[in-house]
């Protein structure tokens, strides 16, 4: 007898999770994922909806501004961490030596005083940060969210310290010695080369790339030029914009109204603790409103921000301690040439300290030869602006002057960082 096909065995229904419970589990998982990713979602949403200022040339990279703001926020934490480390290291000394030190000097007191000074600096850092947040329309929530996603790597303390130090170079009477070695050749030459336009009120356009904290750009605008400053480090642009906000009509702006201690972050080369801890004040002048009307800051990389512009843009380009920052110095020279009108002027003053991973490192004569090849003719400059660098080269005699110029140079320090900065003026051939 053939067997009949059997029906498939019934599927056994095990007692299991109900549909409602599964749904609740799913919702709970989603909620946990959302909570963990909240900072990311928030910062993404805020980037979409933010109405930060639109800047001519290139857009502001919001995440770079956030990084700089975060660096400013963390000034105190990072400075204190460095000072705590000094305490820990001190405590590693043998007791006998600590006793000697205690009897002859007060190392711990020095650390406490440096901590107090760091607190003062922190107030400046926070003032710059708060202004920056208002300027770029960044809320505490957005900054906090950014910091959460980035953790400890969210800001660069060294860049904060460097940017704050530039308040001395540009806007403090303590930096006068740096400005007086570098500004007069540029400002006088510009006045000589463009005498009439200023008086007739014609707009003579000057570009200052790598403007730092903007004092030279400001002084050019004060002479009557229509000035564009360009700077790509957000640490610098935040401090730059902050200082310009302290103009004469700002009710909270006061001459020398800010105090900070620029030398406490590096403990080498100090002749005394008082010298290391001493304060500097800024701004030594309040920017004038009418001058600010002739000055604007374009953020971004000089080459990328300006290369696409029309050729006949600027009457002059002024570079101060800038051309050696290039990864590719030929790009810089070509850009300077390109943005100038025919007959336009390029005034340069600075060293050749090649920095950020340069593709090529040219000597001065090579820089000049490339500049001539690109289309600049060098002009004679006043002999009072320094020593002739090429007295024996007929074509350059009287055209390239070298003069000792400091950079972030503490006048009381036991170490002096100065350059034989080179000054020249080129004209773009027609
Ligand atoms: C050595 S500092 C000089 C700053 C200012 N000119 C001064 O003399 O105080 C060079 C400046 O150029 C800026 N910089 C470097 N490369 C740049 C680039 N490709 N585009 C715009 N700025 C740049 C740096 O951020 C820095 O502020």
Automatic annotation (TrEMBL):
Gene3D superfamilies: Vaccinia Virus protein VP39. InterPro entries: CARME (IPR012901), SAM-dependent_MTases_sf (IPR029063). One of its GO terms (molecular function) is S-adenosylmethionine-dependent methyltransferase activity. Pfam families: CARME. Keywords: Membrane, Transmembrane, Transmembrane helix. The chain crosses the membrane at residues 20-41. It comes from the Eukaryota. PANTHER family: CARNOSINE N-METHYLTRANSFERASE, PTHR12303:SF13. This is Putative trehalase.
